[in-house]
Amino acid sequence: MTKYKLILSYDGTNYSGWQVQPNGVSIQEKLEEAFLILLKEKVNVIGSGRTDAGVHALNQVAHFTFDGPLDCRKITFALNGLLPLDIRIQALLKADPDFHAQHSAKGKCYYYYLNLDSVKSPFFGPFSWHISRNLDLSAMKAAAKILVGTHDFTSFSNQQHLGACKKDPIRTLFRLDFVDWAYGIRLEFEGDGFLYKMVRNIVGTLQEVGTGKLKVEDIPLILEAKDRQRAGHAAPPQGLFLAYVIY
């Protein structure tokens, strides 16, 4: 069996997330359907991790195995001909036998787009969170600095007693940067891993700091509480992108 690595982009607006599930159409499902048509056999595509419903990816990574050589260039072209236009294969490469899209990853980077224009753009609405009221960006940046480093992020996980959070809620956030873009601010999260909805919950919490509902001094208390109810609301999914995976 030969192992292959996929790098793909997708607009998650119309999907229930990455992983195959019974209650909606997923990115993984569409990929496996395309492979079945193309290769005439079922292929199990394993992603670097799940993205939630409505979340996008610039460079998601996945792998699969296939019994036989594949012409990567031709397969890439054929897959993009079969897939919906909101899912695109950027690259298909032969991978080392021990490569695993999820287990080999050393970290990930997510982008979250805040649209701060007074009028919501008709072009970037599906890809950002439009906030029309003024935000105290200085306070948000001060709060973000507290979150950088190694912490127990239980308060920012929607699954406190399940899965990864139950096993180990300690994560290291390498950086949380505020980057200007044409319509507002892009928050860049780079870390060794992220709990379920951790990025969206942090963004929602920072937004509440920006509006004065929470204070910068509340952030250490929220971390210490290890209680999701103490943190802010979850930011909507459409502003979130998986930017890249670190190997």
Q: What does the model show?
A:
There is one protein chain. This protein has helices at 27-39, 72-82, 137-147, 163-167, 198-211, 218-225, and strands at 2-10, 46-47, 56-66, 87-94, 107-115, 129-130, 149-152, 170-181, 184-191, 240-246. It is α+β, with helices and mostly antiparallel strands and 247 residues long. It folds into 2 domains: 2-94, Alpha-Beta Plaits (2-Layer Sandwich); 107-246, Pseudouridine synthase I, catalytic domain, C-terminal subdomain (Alpha-Beta Plaits). The mean pLDDT is 94. It is an enzyme of class 5 (isomerase). Homodimer. One of its GO terms (molecular function) is tRNA pseudouridine(38-40) synthase activity. Substrate binds at residue 110.
Largest sheet: 10 strands, mixed
Shape: globular
Helix content: 25-40%
What is the name of the CATH superfamily of the largest domain? Pseudouridine synthase I, catalytic domain, C-terminal subdomain
> What's the gyration radius in Å?
19 Å
Strand percentage, roughly? Answer: 25-35%
CATH class of the largest domain: Alpha Beta
Oligomerization category of the chains in this entry: single chain
Summing up helix and strand content along with how strands pair, one would put the structural category as alpha+beta
Protein name: tRNA pseudouridine synthase A
Enzyme class: isomerase
Subunit structure: Homodimer.
EC number: 5.4.99.12
